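Re: Re: token formats

Sure, here are both.
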Amino acid sequence: MFGFKSNDEIIYEVVFQLKLTSKQFYRNYRKFQNDVVSEKKKIKKAIQQGDTERAKIYASNAIRKKNEGLNFLRLASRIDAVASRVQTTVTIRTVSKSMGNLVKGMDKAMKSMNLEQISAIMDKFESQFEDLDVQTQVMEGTMNQSTTLTTPQEEVDSLMQQVADEHGLELDMELPGAANHALTGDKEQDLLTERLTKLRNS
């Protein structure tokens, strides 16, 4: 992939590939966010029709899509952090030969959209900078419990109550304390979005 290119040229291509991957993941995140909005509209309609079972299904879908979107946001933030670390090597002129192989591996992982493989490659990228003392804290645990197929009932009930409250609707079911719970992950999402914006503008 790199042939007889200089260190600076290698760095440029590495950073370009990282940023390209990050943008793709951020687009995926926004798509999932749009899906969540769509599912919430379905929840509202189902509640209006008194169909709580259908509302539960839509609420579960919304929470699952929200969590899947957050996985892409976490990894996009992590990749951006690695890209900024790679750029620092221009100054110190230190490029590991293995970096090219890591980018090749990322190409393959991107084609299959395998988040676990990409996360593992990020681990290897980060390890390249430990000896250079330029590694910073990045988001970890990309694939965590939020990827599970089952959605906690409390989150489903909470989202249904949230939608009902937003539109002044009466929800025909008992939801103990649901009105006091916001959709889990909102605070984390805001922090990640803010961090990603700062990284992109740096």
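Second one below.
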Amino acid sequence: MIRRLLAALPLVATLGALLWALQANPLAAPFVERSAGDLALTLEQQVHRAATADWIEAALTQAVAARDADRATMLIGLAQDLGRDVDTTAATAMIAAETDTLSVAVDCAVCMADTSACSSLSHLTFCAVPFEMTVLGDLNALRRAAFAFAVGQEVDEVDAGLALVGLGATGAVLVSGGSSVTVKAGATLLRLARRIGSITPELTRFIRVPIRWARVDDFVLGTARIEDVTDGAALARMGALAADLGRVRAATSTAEALRLARFVDTPADATRLARVAEAAGPRTTRTFAVLGKSRVFRATLRVSRAATGTLILIWLTAAQIAVILGTRIGSLAVRSVMRAI
């Protein structure tokens, strides 16, 4: 009897530990967010494995064919950082041609007049962003929308809504002493990203807010509040999204944030992107280019220690039960054979 109790003691101890672990229900939410340091290390390891010399050469060929100097520059830097032996002759020549001083000057004049005509993100950042980041950029967007409404043309409500967020954040900056700068920057980034086609249709539906056009002029003149022009709750949701995009810009750059905006379909995506950007910093764009959105966002989570421990206890319990049952069945089989003999 004592021998049987001693044999069952490991199983009893494991079952007790398992029941104690299950009280916290760790398997209900088995995944937790990685720390910034852990996330940066995990992403860099995955990029190092995925970005082979062949992959970089193929990506460079595509960038040269598309005359995408920004992407080609990023890929050349990636090859140098990882020590990949890649032929960059064609890419370097293309970059030199695209960044010719005269060409940049002509493109800049066109870009300032119409951001949708900017030839590259670098040109957009250099030429249009300084103006668009000011209150004048937001007022100009509202002016375009009000004029379109007055003459019966189609109104770009998304552009106007983002301008309202920017103006609201500008006013909040004056009151808060600067804490709303991130929201202002994010709203402008969203507006510019949409005009260059870097915003997904899913996100476009989310950032559309209702606007009372009859009160827009009063708001611009300062005789109406922003709540009189649009829905406050919708504006707050857009403000939170803009804040996340502002975090991305602060961790990377304006050009990179504009390129990364296409990976955002929902507000949750914007929050994840901000976490990745704050962990990876200037390497965020190349991380997405190599791994893709799904792999990058999956890397932000890991199985919690509590869930891992619980799964191990479940496995140990099952293994011990299997050993006990196997021993009993084996003993019964041996006895049956002995009796038959």
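Residues 57 and 87 are 7 Å apart (CA to CA). The chain has three domains: 2-30+304-340, 35-99+268-303, 128-265.
- S.
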